[in-house]
Specification:
The protein is of the alpha+beta class and 455 residues long. The protein has twelve helices and twelve strands. The protein has a six-stranded antiparallel beta sheet with strand order 1-2-3-4-6-5.
């Protein structure tokens, strides 16, 4: 949506995306002697500017991301306030995200070459290794976990640079506002088993999620999926979470994927954290070794050419910083502000969801060799799930124990809030329907009784 609006010393050019907490704009900054720079502005919604909890979460994202400075991480320039609205100014990455690239490839019926998929994954490993090992100015290890490694948070620029973005739900020991109560945030299909079970997370959760991202690049489908459209019923979401917590997926054979990358997936997509790569650096080294054994060119220059060729038929939508897909409840506003096709495209995303947790018992994990032939759509729906999600308890890192949990998916948005215009849950709607039926029945019975007396 093209606009021309002044926002402090920035000129907002067009809105890129919006979520339950903030809006993201492509912006221009000008200065003396013809200085001009494009960047991205993420600003909190005006109606949340006085909500201390939201502001705290927004500021936490800026604090965490601003600490990080690495070639494979989207950069934060400043945190500011304009007319009572907090904003984050961040790097403009001229390119597309991996989710957009994957969708484009599916339309064409082709897969990304394995050597380029490995290059993207290796560069994300570089970013994760830096973030996981990051120490603050006092040399305190922050134990940062991204918690939302997914294709839409992996940017690829026109010149082949791969950058990890959106530390909006990351956790670090510096956070002032940690995850609210027992709310768990992330995307179903890309969660690690421990994240889907609501357990304490460490860096190995990010490594598992990266394995999911690589699997999807190599095979054109997610490892954890169910037939039909996910999110249409409570049972769909429950079954998807069961697949994740039990780590049930089909391992590709040597005819589909190079042996080195199969070995990488085996070491990444495991139910038990102790069986995975223990660091992102270890994972990166294995990917680099696999790249050396592949005949194809896995260079940054080749990646740049490939992305430009695939995306040349349509505009590469700028997607820098934290760019959530529109919530389903925002469809009406999206259609009002844009074409229907464009709005539906925005809603049909891997939306970050929030989940409530309660304690239950945990079951044994299964072996990852179940085949799921049909491709499921993105798991964007957020409904209530009361069934127990089984998994196997896994060991913690640094003495942290894992509490067994029950998953209950709520209508909370990515920042743990209901957000404006959010639709009622199916459960709530069912209760309303039942109450209405009871009232109608009671009214009918009363009317009948009065009629009998009059007669």
């Amino acid at each position: 949506m093209a606009i021309e609006v002044s926002f402090g010393r920035f000129q907002l050019l067009r809105r890129i995306a919006q979520g339950g907490m903030a809006e993201v704009y492509l912006a221009q900054q000008t200065g003396p002697a013809g200085f001009s720079k494009q960047l991205v502005i993420k600003k909190i919604h005006p109606h949340l500017a006085h909500n201390e909890e939201f502001v705290g979460m927004f500021l936490d994202e800026a604090r965490v991301a601003a600490l990080l400075s690495h070639p494979n991480i989207g950069q934060i320039y400043e945190l500011g306030e304009e007319h009572g609205q907090y904003y984050i100014a961040m790097e403009h990455i001229d390119g597309c995200n991996l989710r957009q690239l994957n969708k484009r490839l599916r339309r064409k019926g082709i897969l990304i070459p394995p050597e380029l998929a490995a290059r993207i994954a290796a560069d994300v490993c570089n970013a994760l290794d830096y973030a996981h090992r990051f120490r603050d100015g006092n040399e305190k290890l922050l134990r940062l976990v991204h918690r939302d490694i997914s294709p839409q948070n992996v940017m690829i620029s026109r010149d082949g640079a791969v950058k990890l973005i959106d530390f909006g739900i990351a956790k670090a020991t510096t956070n002032q506002q940690l995850t609210q109560g027992n709310v768990l945030k992330g995307k179903f299909s890309y969660m690690s088993p421990e994240q889907a079970s609501g357990k304490r997370l460490d860096r190995r959760s990010d490594i598992f999620s990266l394995g999911v991202v690589l699997y999807e690049m190599l095979l054109g489908e997610k490892p954890f999926r169910i037939p039909g459209q996910v999110g249409k019923s409570r049972s769909d979401n429950t079954e998807l979470l069961r697949l994740v917590t039990r780590c049930e997926y089909r391992l590709p054979n040597s005819g589909e994927v190079p042996e080195g990358l199969i070995a990488f997936l085996k070491r990444t997509l495991t139910a038990h954290r102790g069986d995975r790569f223990q660091t992102a650096r270890e994972a990166r080294d294995m990917l680099e070794s696999a790249l050396e054994e592949m005949p194809g060119d896995g260079s940054t220059r080749r990646l740049a050419r490939f992305v430009t060729e695939i995306m040349s038929e349509e505009e590469i939508r700028t997607n820098s910083g934290s760019l959530p897909s529109l919530e389903a409840s925002q469809l009406a506003r999206a259609v009002a502000g844009a074409g229907q096709a464009e709005a539906l495209e925005a809603v049909d995303g891997d939306a970050t969801v929030a989940m409530d947790l309660a304690t239950v018992t945990i079951d044994q994990a299964r072996s990852p060799f179940d085949s799921h032939a049909s491709e499921a759509s993105d798991d964007t729906a957020i409904v209530e799930v009361d069934e127990i999600i089984d998994s196997h308890s896994v060991e913690g890192l640094g003495g942290h124990g894992d509490a067994p949990t029950r998953i209950r998916v709520s209508t909370l948005d990515a920042y743990g809030t209901q957000g404006s215009g959010t639709a009622q849950t199916a459960l709530h709607a069912d209760r309303i329907s039942r109450n209405a039926i009871i009232l109608v029945a009671a009214f009918g019975a009363t009317a009948g009784f009065i009629a009998a007396l009059l007669l």
